[in-house]
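Quick question, first post here. What does this chain look like in 3D?
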Amino acid sequence: MAPPVPTIPLTDLEKEINVLASGKARKPPVSNLRDCPLKELTQYKCNVRQPATKGQKAVIVCEPFVRMYRV
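> Answer (accepted):
Ran it through. Tokens below.
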């Protein structure tokens, strides 16, 4: 499982985007977020639903959710 990723509020995004994970400043800095294209990724969360009665098979139910990224 991947490590948890912190959630960054939109108000802090512009200053957080210019700092790398190592803590160093990004070179060259991103001055305008509108220059970065917005991308969409659809992922699925799947759960196994156990049958209510014996003799039935378990059902796998997958639900999509969308994540938005700036590149």
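The mean pLDDT is 86.
The CA atoms of residues 18 and 45 lie 31 Å apart.
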